[in-house]
Amino acid sequence: MGSWSRPDRSRASCQLSRKKGSHCDFAPVYFYDKEKPIEMQIPHGTDIVHFQSNPGKNFEFPYLVTEHSNHDLKHPMSLNTVFLTRDHANRHGSEEYVYNGLDWRQYGSVDFNKKRKYYHFLGKAARQDKNVKGAIDVALTANIKLSVLGGYRLNVSRHWRFTWSRSVKFHGMVGGNRKLDLLNGSLGLIFPVTWHEPFGLAITESLYFGCPVFGTPYGSLPELVPDQCGYLSNKASELASAISEKKFDARECHDFAFKNFGLDQMVRGYLEKYERVIDGEKLNSIPPALKGERNNLPWHV
């Protein structure tokens, strides 16, 4: 969680962290003691507290909560909860959302002239609802090479999977320049998730590198992937056909991500929420609650 002060005031921001070793370049870090009430640990002079996980209660002081997943129905959500996309908010009975934003300066420039020879999957492949098996089915049907970023050829941690095909290359858990180089060499992202993806940084990162998205029409995907930037279906055969037959402009995909999912857009969105909360407004009139199924959504080979 973090706190924030208005720009016209002298007080600085601070961070309250659960994990030892956390650091912040622009503010002091205080460590959260789960044995003490949160109210006792907020530094004096704080204007607003921003939680990155559900505290399970409402507070008298100004606060905001960002919900990053599909919420567990066992616990009530706070009135000042903000979601990641319009779909994410609507499925919890809310209209409050702010798109995740990335600092594109950390991603470097995109080489649009680089020879691209494969498609990619990006995500925690061990998670069944990320559906790396579906991505592999699409690649094999389309007769294309697939690079899996975030998984291994053999998986036994959550469900058994072993991929025999040598046209599918596994890179394990990658980050930093290695990840960026792989994205910069890809023709597109294959992302057939079988849950309602709340946002999907894999989508916006891939679009930034000029990669169209071939995924399922669930959760945030219809919102983040316009027609000119990809194709959505819950059928492997249709996604494979789209990869073979449809053409997408890499620069148009890049421009869409750069314009809509950058850090500045996210900051402006949260500042607007902060001002409303500081002025005494409750963002939701009733506690948000997840409506409908959140995973085990249909997928057809």
Explain how this protein is built:
This protein is an alpha/beta fold and 301 residues long. The chain has 2 domains: 2-101 and 264-278, no CATH class; 104-260, 3-Layer(aba) Sandwich (Rossmann fold). 25% of the residues lie in helices and 16% in strands. It has 8 helices and 14 strands. The chain has helices spanning 86-90, 132-142, 176-184, 201-208, 221-224, 236-245, 250-260, 263-278; strands at 2-4, 14-17, 29-31, 48-51, 63-66, 81-82, 118-122, 146-149, 154-155, 161-162, 168-170, 186-191, 213-215, 230-232. The strands form 3 sheets. The protein has a 6-stranded mixed beta sheet with strand order 3-2-1-4-5-6, with helices on one face. The chain has a 6-stranded parallel beta sheet with strand order 11-8-7-12-13-14, with helices on both faces. Strand 9 (154-155) and strand 10 form a beta hairpin. Helix 2 (132-142) crosses helix 6 (236-245) and helix 4 (201-208) packs across helix 7 (250-260). The protein is globular. The chain starts with a strand and ends in a 23-residue tail after the last helix. 36% of the residues are buried.
